[in-house]
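User: I'm writing a tutorial on reading structure tokens. Could you give me a worked example: one chain, its sequence, then its tokens, then a sentence or two explaining what the tokens reveal?
Assistant: Sure. Here is the example chain.
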Amino acid sequence: MQKIAILYDASQAVLSTFDLDEVLQQILVIAHDYFHLQNAAILLLDEGELHVRRQIGWDEGQDKIRLAVGKGITGVAALQKRPIYAPDVSKDPRYVLSAQNTRSELAIPLMVRDQVVGVLDCQSENVNHFDAETVDLLALFSTQASIALENARLYSLERRRASQLEAINVIAKQMTVSLDQPQLLSKVCWLIQETFQVPQVSALFRDEEELILKASHGTLALGVQAGESLPMRNTPWGRAFETGKYLIEDDITQGQDGRFFPGSASRMSIPLVFYGQALGVLVLTSNRKCAFNPNDAQPLESVADICAAAIQNAIYVERMRKLAYLDGLTGIFNRRYFEDRVGEEIERVRRFGSCMGVIMLDIDQFKRLNDQFGHLLGDEVLRQVASILHQQVRKFDIVCRYGGEEFVVLLSQTNPQHLLQVAEKLVRMVENWQFPGVPRPVTISAGAANYPEHGSTRDELVEAADRALYTAKKSGRNRACLATGPVHAEHTPHQKVPELAPES
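And here are its predicted structure tokens:
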């Protein structure tokens, strides 16, 4: 009866707390005080191996070992799910040294339902130390210890869930702060990486048959840079995208995709889905195997849904912003966009000591063309002129419809000579173009101004280019002229160049 009372007291002690570290400490205290064991340890199962979580009496450094299930007396106990007793370890080939003074060892699996969560390892300095009654008492105590460990795990899980819910709420609030897509994606990766303690988080978005890396944050190296593409077919992240379901890979050390995520050992891919439409994939990577728990999938999917909605909103805003900057007739940028960009470009070249230029272009005698052939054909001429200008400049140059039949081209990294050459090329291209339905040639006139030679502000550059355009018109049209001398800010702002009277 005394031993039963001792067991009851011991059970109450380990069940008195929900903190895992305190539970582990109580188990070892009871092993030492109640069962008079000088050497005892608790090994927990993690990633398919047993590792020492807490111990007393082991030799220095031995608590760092990791044992596979089935190896050593503790590993056999975990494999067979029953106590394993070695009355004389010197005669048992399964024994793995943990303390030089150990003569007998008893390993009892710690089980929750039918699953092994760890092993209570008891060692004695005496041969054949554990009699049948002591083994039975330790086995009963291990049952209570297993319950205490499970309670501590569930309590920790609930606290983690509460923390994750709080994090989801924080992320949801943060997602409403920014509607700039690149900034938003960077914030998404950073928040998930920090909140869920993931080594690396990357955001991939679909572009035809590939996924583009848009943003990434963390401590691991990546084999691709932002803007580069990753294949979608026959890849784990591609399967997550196509199925709309998360995918956990416990061991990717031997995978064929190491060039994209070098040094990664496990990965979780979570699709970004908005109203049934897959936008992309969040790829979480770790340098540890089995780093991702399926229990974390639900909160991470909730975060992914929040992010997908925020990203879709940013896409809508970006789309609306672009529409506000586009000319409805020609499809190229409008005057508002030009006025925003020319100021930015001037600031950039001023900071780096570079140069840039502006070309103003106007369709010659456009009113007469409208009067002769109708506005529908006039609109088609505007569209085709816009297309010619867009095709004949560099990709990073900007073509805008300035108003009516007038266009403007913003060129970076250009000097006055090159600027004039471009303007003359555009004039010739339009002159030689065959406009369907127009029986006579359509021509344009152009005026060019360069920064800093002809002006140092937006208004000065536009005014200088406008004066050069007027000169081209006055000189007979169908030609390009370069501005002469700087224009001062006190000159009147740009006005539409009046159409000269037809030449006789």
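What the tokens reveal: The radius of gyration is 38 Å. Residues 132-175 form the longest helix (44 residues).
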